[in-house]
Amino acid sequence: MPNSFGDRLRHAWNAIRYGESQIYFDAGSGYSIRPDLYKLRLGTERSIISSIYTRIGIDVASIPIQHVRLDKDGRYLETIPSGLNNCLTLEANIDQSGRSFIQDVVMSMCDEGVVAIVPVNTTINPMITGSYDIITLRTAKILSWHPKYVRLNLYNDETGLKQEIMLPKSMVAIVENPLYAVMNEPNSTLQRLITKLNLLDVIDQQSGSGKLDLIIQLPYVVKTDARRQQAENRRADIESQLTGSKYGIAYTDGTEKITQLNRPAENNLMAQIEFLTSMLYSQLGLTKGVFDGTADEAQMLNYYNRSIEPILSAVIDGMKRVFITKTGRTQGQSIIALRDPFKLVPVSQIADIADKFTRNEILTSNELRQIVGRKPSEDPVADELRNKNLNQPESQVEPKPTDNEGETNQNGRSLQ
């Protein structure tokens, strides 16, 4: 009996007991945060730019990228069950899924301007042959450029440390930001916006630092050393009264005048930030509705065509150029993005779209059931690509014999 008490006792396993007794000895280096995650540059994470990077990274990663085979006309034929496809769709490495890996690639590319995708583990040495399959992928920061090599800062999941390595460009997918001139140039719109936002943060920090910024006008002229020393003693006395008082109250002489300077400074910094923000949004194809979820279909289409599609194509072309050899391309292998056009369609329009797609023999009933989240129907008619609103031609029925069957006319022809 396989589920008997003795069988369960022999094969029982407890995660807590195993983790306490066996893993501590060979777990390696430990950190309070994940060491493999990419950290945004100083200044970027303190501004709204990080939210833009995150929004773009999530939207690009939401589009499935697959290793596929195409027909002779470049049309999708089938998905290849390879290690590369497993990295792109399921597990890129021991720390990241396929979707989080693509998001890491996009956010690193937006922040640095260029990122490297490194095949860490492969079935065959890529230095010897190009006929290898990829097991794991990771992103790496490019430290220096050489004619045929690049020096990378790559995370080593065996030691838990980041280390510098030198790899040839022929085996590393280098992805450059197609919006580099807008986002990463020193004088680009985004970099100017980051500078202005950092200045605004400095002003806000100074305003909230707790300083009173007082000027005390004494009833005498402070020119000699003795008078300056007397003024310094008076200033120290007022500071001592404020810090030592429960409610921060101090007294002054009736002849002394106090002027407070911590008034909000009037400048046009906020107006400049608003102008640069609107300019950046227009150059990236972004709108406020994209971020708060109120964008209509036209705005989302413009956002995907002007922002998401160029970045997605840059990532795909970078991997396709390096990871698929000439022989593989002649065999129809490629890397493509399969975007779901029904993801942004409201439920109220699904019925009308389903009718049009089935009536024009574009999708079958079972394919539409998958789109709306229903399991396929077992009816074989649901897998037929035909217009179900039309009556199908009936099978030919043999005509019944007539009384004249077998008779012929004078020319020897049948009379039927």
How would you summarize this macromolecular structure in one to three sentences?
The protein is of the alpha+beta class and 416 residues long. It has helices at 5-11, 15-23, 49-61, 83-89, 98-112, 180-183, 189-207, 225-244, 269-284, 288-292, 297-323, 326-330, 347-359, 365-371; strands spanning 65-70, 76-79, 114-122, 134-145, 149-156, 161-168, 173-176, 214-217, 257-260, 333-337.
Written overview of the protein:
It is elongated and about 110 Å long. A five-stranded antiparallel beta sheet has the order 6-5-4-3-7. A three-stranded antiparallel beta sheet has the order 2-1-10. The relative contact order is 0.10. 40% of the residues lie in helices and 15% in strands. It has helices at 5-11, 15-23, 49-61, 83-89, 98-112, 180-183, 189-207, 225-244, 269-284, 288-292, 297-323, 326-330, 347-359, 365-371; strands at residues 65-70, 76-79, 114-122, 134-145, 149-156, 161-168, 173-176, 214-217, 257-260, 333-337. It starts with a helix and ends in a 45-residue tail after the last helix. A hairpin with a 3-residue loop joins strand 4 and strand 5. It has three domains: 34-197 and 288-339, no CATH class; 198-270, no CATH class; 345-392, no CATH class. By secondary structure, it is α+β, with helices and mostly antiparallel strands. The longest helix has 27 residues, at 297-323. Helix 3 (49-61) packs antiparallel against helix 5, helix 4 (83-89) packs across helix 5 and helix 7 packs antiparallel against helix 9 (269-284).
